[in-house]
Amino acid sequence: MGTVDADGESAAWSPSYDLERWTAREGTGSFPRLPFRYPPRPGDARQLVRAALLAQVPEIVVNSSALAHPYLVPGASYDQLWTWDAYFTGLAVQEQHPEASAGSLRNLLAAVTGEGRPPSLIDASGVPSYEHVAQPVHAQWALAVLRLGESEPSWLPAVWPTLVAIRDWWDRHCRSRHHLYTWIDGAGSGIDNDRAIYGRPGGDVALVDMNCFHVRELRAMAALADRLGADGAADYRAAAATLTESINTYMWDPVDETYYHLHLPPRQGTTLQNVTWELPYKVQSWGCLFPLWTGVADHGKADRLVRSHVLNPDRFLSGFGIRSTPADDRMYNNLPMADPSNWQGPVWGLSTMLTCYGLARYGYRAEALRVAGRFVGLLAADLAANGTIHEFYDAESGRPGFNPGFLSWNLLALRILSDVENGDDPTEL
């Protein structure tokens, strides 16, 4: 039987993190800074953040003899080329550093194995890691590079077979029932401690966020095939449509008005009744909001998701952005932690800004501006008080979390407000 806290609530599932072990391993440099002394005036936030972040961008553009092309790193304690960090960072600075965005992708594609498995990262010495699988973003990344330039990059036709090999690898290893994709690892999805996958066996969990990424990849593969005159465009489009239908059929809960991750283990023996159902993991992270950003949700589902969850201050909406886990969840917490980084409550730049692009997509532009403005103001306050920005923030107080100097996808703050105002989206396919 679990313990009971002072309010009479069960503490059986309270969060536990070994901070002393982290401190012994990493030292004190990653500790959270002091809370803000004062916030900047709202009118100054955008200018302050833009000037400060642009000045710091050169620090994360790396030219190294260890890799063939310039690349992007997240900053702070991270000096590796991480797949989804570099993808979103490249979208944020594609006008200032297009060579580093394209170079990051080219370096990662060069490290894809013969069977098509992409590395999750490449370290500073040029060694790729396959401990976890990369997020499926390579085709949409190539499409972004293609659309930024006035002409087709000379290297793109040469990497098309690699992109096809990656797509085939996903289909062989991860496509499950109903054309949904399971996550191959028990961690490493990027949302480090999402309870649907963290510490659990890989291969049985279909994540909402990863399946939405796959929809984008299939759409991007179709667009690239059209552009290159390659085979397969119609098949990729059909697969994207089928997967979109499956997400909305099997992952959407009409009672709770949200999408849920699914448990898709191998079928066990039965008697006379056939199993015609799947069981959802009825816990949410901001990964369950991905159908907004990716356009997978129809307008009816999007409206219900936005009104019941995204803009609900008791759930995802914080005074500082979008919480990574709803505030009324029993495991909600804002503990400063790393390895895993904490996505069980804190506000992150990626959760906030992708959700804002999703809100704008479905007509909630004013709401997107307000939420994005809260996060830009949070960064401005951090810069004013501490001279830097951090990896994530306490959703209740705005207190910075680990890793001062973490830029990565936070650099989308350079453009998020103007993008929403002007109807732009650098992630659009």
Map the helices and strands:
Blueprint: H1 19-26, H2 42-56, E1 61-62, E2 71-72, E3 81-82, H3 83-92, H4 98-110, E4 119-122, E5 128-133, H5 138-148, H6 156-174, E6 205-206, H7 208-228, H8 233-251, E7 252-253, E8 258-259, E9 261-263, E10 279-281, H9 290-294, H10 299-310, E11 317-318, E12 321-322, E13 347-348, H11 349-361, H12 365-386, E14 392-393, H13 416-422
Antiparallel strand pairs: 1-2, 3-4, 4-5, 6-9, 7-8, 9-10, 11-12, 13-14
Structural notes for this entry:
The protein has helices at 19-26, 42-56, 83-92, 98-110, 138-148, 156-174, 208-228, 233-251, 290-294, 299-310, 349-361, 365-386, 416-422, and strands at 61-62, 71-72, 81-82, 119-122, 128-133, 205-206, 252-253, 258-259, 261-263, 279-281, 317-318, 321-322, 347-348, 392-393. It starts with 18 loop residues before the first helix and ends in a 7-residue tail after the last helix. Residues 30-35 have low confidence and may be disordered. The longest helix is centred in the C-terminal third of the chain and has 22 residues, at 365-386. A hairpin with an 8-residue loop joins strand 1 (61-62) and strand 2 (71-72). The protein is mainly alpha-helical and 429 residues long.
The Rg value, from CA coordinates, equals: 21 Å
Question: In percent, how much strand structure appears in the residues?
Answer: 5-15%
**Span between termini:** 51 Å
What class, by secondary structure content?
A: mainly alpha
Strand order of the largest sheet: 3-4-5
Residue ranges: pLDDT <50 for 5 or more in a row?
30-35
The counted number of beta strands is 14
What is the succession of H and E elements?
A: HHEEEHHEEHHEHHEEEEHHEEEHHEH
**Helix count?**
13
